[in-house]
Amino acid sequence: MRKFQDLLARVFDVALVLAGAALASQIRFDYLAQSGFYWALVMFSAAFALAIFPAFGVYESWRGRSKLALAGQVSLAWLIVQGCALVLMYSLHRSDLVSRLWFSYWTAVTGALLISYRLITHAALARARGAGMNLHQVAIVGSGSQCEAILRRIEAAPTAGFRATAVYNTRPDETSVTNSRVPVFDSVDALADYIRTNDVHELWLMLSLSEEPLICALIGRFRDDLVNIRFMPDVRSHALFEGSGVVELLGMPAINLVASPLSASSMLKKEIFDRLFAAAALIALAPLLLAIAIAVKLSSRGPVLFKQKRKGADGRVFTIYKFRSMRLHTEAKGVLSQATRDDSRVTKVGAFLRRTSLDELPQFFNVLRGDMSVVGPRPHALEHDDLYQKVVAGYINRYRIKPGITGWAQINGFRGETDRIEKMERRVEHDLYYLGHWSFALDMRIIGATIVAGLVHRNAY
User: Fold this and answer.
1) How far from the centroid of its chain's Cα atoms is residue 111's Cα?
2) How many Å apart are CA 227 and CA 200, to the nearest integer?
3) Rg of the Cα trace of the chain?
4) Among 270, 239, 243, 255, which Cα is nearest to 439's?
5) Where are the transmembrane segments (predicted)?
6) What angle do CA 354, 359, 365 make, to 5 degrees?
């Protein structure tokens, strides 16, 4: 059944790619009837979509997962497909045969169709599950507090398609399960009989790593039954980030306790998006970059760009670029003075650039080079790293991913001068929250907030 659903989804995707091309053609002119190359390009994108979409998980089950994340995954996958189509056109020297306006319409219309189709399907399934259909019955094994927590999550998301039907409290003497609608068992035998009698589909083991004998006993008990057994280890006291993921190392599963929460595939998607976004931004902003460069050069003596060493992912040092906003000055070795309000070193042009964050635009070159990301923890000067690493808990973990031009801390107001340790602590808290809750949708939210409301801020001086 699952294979048939996957096949059907792929057929629909091909149909939507073709439909999007046809609709785009009807908006202005019937380009598809004009040239066979148009159809060849459309078929290439359709075939490439079938090849690349599975890598982005768009055909996996999204039961209990975010619709916004689904839309983000589909959008990113489709943009990469169309990016490859552009590369193909330019490689074959056929870009002059295709209308750029039609290509833009086709990309937008097909993207909207792909997302709408999935959201409509997701909503239909959610309504069915909310009405009691297509449900997976779940039995839960864990301590009373753990069972209570997962029961609340299941009840808070009725459209996810899970229904708790049984609980085995491993520590009845310490905590009890107060939910009266779910039967609570005090032995493995009674739980096993209930699961088999009532056709329970899922068994979730909310157990700690020290309870291996019970885990093995439960797996052995249901070895010959068609029950999905999912181990959700309680590693909250050990894990650096909430919801630390499971990765595969040398063909073996491993749980990240103290490591980057972004998987290899997530890092790859982020990397691809960063390079495409940076290239597009530099092309689109080229006239503005030139105008700012001229203004900086005329404002005071010195170079157009300010260069400084910063730490990147895994502590690697790189050179960051900004438009120079201060007059040339010297400081004692190992000492770095942050800009303060009404700082006499800042030029008039520099004050405007800093206030609007336009001085940060050259960092798109850092993103294009792979030193930085569009979104991530803001990098600090090396002197500040040496100071705050010793006094701010968790500071070093900011370097588990690439630093960003903008970030979660910045759009929440934590930017500018850090004249008190408390300010840096709050900034680090927001950076670690971003690492622990990263998603493509969150990146889009941060970029949108930066563009709409984050360019000018009272702490930018």
Assistant:
1) 19
2) 7
3) 27
4) 270
5) 7-25, 37-56, 68-90, 102-120, 276-296
6) 155
> How far apart are alpha carbons 308 and 436 in whole angstroms?
29
Q: Which residues pair with 311 in a beta bridge?
A: 317
Distance of alpha carbon 226 from alpha carbon 240, whole angstroms: 35
**Dihedral sign for Cα atoms in the order 176, 177, 181, 182:** negative
CB atoms within 10 A of CB 374: 24
Nearest Cα to Cα of residue 311 among 365, 270, 371, 395: 371
Strands 305-311 and 317-323 come out as antiparallel
Distances (CA, A) of 420 to 249, 425, 427: 42, 9, 11
Domain spanning 136-234, CATH architecture = 3-Layer(aba) Sandwich (3.40)
Q: Which two tokens stand for residue 371?
A: 């030193």
> Could you give the CA distance from residue 132 to residue 145 in angstroms, rounded to a whole number?
27
**CA-to-CA distance for 410 and 351, rounded, in angstroms?**
18
The whole-angstrom separation of Cα 351 and Cα 299 is: 11
Name the token pair of 131: 């009405």
Per-residue pLDDT of the chain (461 residues; tens, 9 = 90+): 556 667 788 888 889 998 888 888 887 666 665 666 778 888 889 988 888 888 777 777 666 566 777 788 888 889 999 888 888 887 777 767 777 888 888 899 999 999 988 888 877 776 766 666 667 889 999 887 788 888 888 888 777 778 888 899 888 776 777 766 788 888 888 888 999 888 888 899 888 777 888 888 888 888 888 888 888 776 655 555 555 566 666 666 666 666 677 777 788 889 989 999 999 999 999 999 999 999 999 888 889 999 999 998 888 999 999 999 888 766 655 555 565 565 677 888 888 888 888 889 999 999 999 999 999 999 988 888 888 888 888 888 888 889 999 999 988 888 766 667 888 889 989 998 898 888 888 999 999 888 876 555 555 54
Tokens of residue 161, six digits: 């398609």
Write down the residue that tokens 């992912």 correspond to: 313
Distance CA 69, CA 47 (A): 24
Query: Looking at the DSSP assignment, which residues form a beta bridge with residue 252?
Result: 249
The closest of 69, 47, 68 to 269, measured between CA atoms, is: 69
Residue with tokens 């622990």: 436
Looking at the DSSP bridge assignments, the partners of residue 203 are 139, 229
